[in-house]
């Protein structure tokens, strides 16, 4: 018997095999709150523990990884994209002080290649396990004719919870607070359209090797460095030092100043000292290829800062030490001021609809 759907380009058997291949990785993220297992129409999560909260607030976030997937497709390496997705989604949850509960994912592709889909899902599952997030469901959709046979895109959504009284944000930030930068692992998942444009313009192939990226490491492999995950060490810090951290910012789309400005109160300002860190080689190499100063990319790339923590002045040293001990290199980059300042030339003020504080970068980057 013929299968009209298969003749149209949709292979349901391949989809079923992909689910089987990813099943164990997904199940490994489940805890006692997950009910129903894998494969249901909806994921189920027992939230009866919320009755113990005084005033629980649910936090939610959704995102993708952008055109970074094009590099994964180009070099046929798909085992890190999933961690990028978790980083983009779950690390937005912790910004408000929330603990992630569960996540769902969506993979759209031109053709289901079971092992490829399983690699992507396994990366998502590893990221979920590392952040204490249950992967309770997802969807793999085959779109022949809309996407090329080897094209795909990924997206996800997560939900977390925070006690209302423990919510972080601009409302807690005070004059004299210290802005602590927390190191990124690289580009993370932002600015890849610019990256791809630079490489294309210079005729650089993803299989090429550059000495700045290390022996035996191709350009594509260097660019696929997975997004650093911040949730678990930040939650540990919040638990161990209650009240020390006033706000957090995830440095993603929009760059350095704009993302920090979003978590500062109106009327406050800070100057971020570029000399306090040296951008990673990947940023320097790309900027040099583009004949562009690093300063011109600050609104696109994170330049080595994946998160900011705005902390009480007296707690800054302890916060930096605690984050460093957890594997997150951190350093002070500036001090919040609420003193009146009429001249805000060069400052970013709020972003993405948020009327926040004012931020500008000053000085020159360390060598």
Key phrases:
alpha+beta, 13 strands, 367 residues, Phosphoribosyl-aminoimidazole Synthetase, Chain A, domain 2, 4-stranded antiparallel β-sheet, 30% helix, 60s Ribosomal Protein L30, Chain: A, 24% strand
Summarize the structure.
With 367 residues, the protein is of the alpha+beta class. The protein is built from eleven helices and 13 strands. It folds into two domains: 8-166, 60s Ribosomal Protein L30, Chain: A, CATH 3.30.1330.10; 170-362, Alpha-Beta Complex (Phosphoribosyl-aminoimidazole Synthetase, Chain A, domain 2).
Question: Can you put this structure into words, describing what you see?
Answer:
There is one protein chain. Strands 3-6-4-5 form a four-stranded mixed sheet, with helices on one face. It folds into two domains: 8-166, 2-Layer Sandwich (60s Ribosomal Protein L30, Chain: A); 170-362, Phosphoribosyl-aminoimidazole Synthetase, Chain A, domain 2 (Alpha-Beta Complex), CATH 3.90.650. β1 and β2 (44-45) form a beta hairpin. The chain has helices spanning 4-7, 12-27, 68-75, 81-93, 114-131, 192-202, 219-223, 231-240, 255-261, 281-289, 316-325, and strands at 34-35, 44-45, 56-64, 99-109, 134-142, 152-163, 178-183, 245-250, 269-273, 305-311, 330-335, 348-351, 354-362. It is an alpha+beta fold and 367 residues long. It is globular. The chain contains eleven helices and 13 strands.
């Amino acid at each position: 018997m013929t299968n009209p759907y298969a003749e149209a380009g949709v292979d349901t058997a391949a989809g079923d095999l992909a689910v089987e291949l990813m099943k164990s990785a997904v199940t490994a993220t489940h805890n006692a709150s997950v009910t129903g297992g894998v494969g249901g129409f909806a994921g189920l999560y027992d939230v009866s523990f919320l009755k113990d909260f005084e005033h629980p607030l649910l936090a939610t976030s959704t995102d993708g990884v952008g055109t970074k997937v094009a590099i994964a497709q180009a070099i046929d390496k798909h085992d890190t994209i999933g961690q990028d997705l978790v980083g983009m989604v779950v690390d937005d949850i912790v910004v408000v002080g929330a603990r992630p509960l569960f996540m769902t994912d969506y993979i759209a592709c031109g053709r289901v290649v079971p092992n490829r889909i399983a690699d992507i899902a396994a990366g998502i599952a590893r990221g979920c396990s590392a952040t204490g997030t249950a992967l309770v469901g997802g969807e793999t959709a085959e779109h022949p004719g809309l996407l090329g046979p080897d094209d795909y895109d990924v997206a996800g959504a997560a939900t977390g919870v925070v006690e209302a009284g423990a919510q972080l944000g601009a409302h807690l930030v005070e004059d004299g607070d210290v802005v602590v930068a927390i190191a990124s692992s690289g580009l993370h998942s932002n600015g890849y359209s610019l990256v791809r444009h630079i490489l294309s313009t210079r005729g650089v192939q993803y299989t090429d090797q550059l000495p700045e990226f290390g022996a035996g490491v191709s350009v594509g492999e260097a660019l696929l460095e997975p997004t650093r995950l911040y949730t678990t060490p930040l939650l540990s810090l919040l638990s161990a030092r209650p009240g020390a951290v006033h706000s957090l910012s995830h440095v993603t789309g929009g760059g350095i100043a704009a993302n920090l400005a979003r978590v500062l109160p109106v009327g406050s300002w800070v100057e971020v000292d570029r000399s306090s860190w040296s951008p990673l080689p990947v940023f320097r190499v790309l900027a040099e290829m583009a004949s562009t100063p690093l300063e011109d990319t600050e609104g696109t790339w994170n330049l080595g800062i994946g998160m900011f923590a705005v902390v009480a002045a007296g707690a800054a040293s302890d916060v930096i030490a605690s984050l460093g001990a957890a594997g997150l290199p951190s350093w002070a980059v500036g001090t919040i001021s609420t003193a009146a300042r009429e001249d805000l030339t060069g400052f970013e003020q709020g972003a993405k609809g948020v009327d926040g504080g004012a931020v500008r970068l000053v000085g020159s980057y360390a060598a």
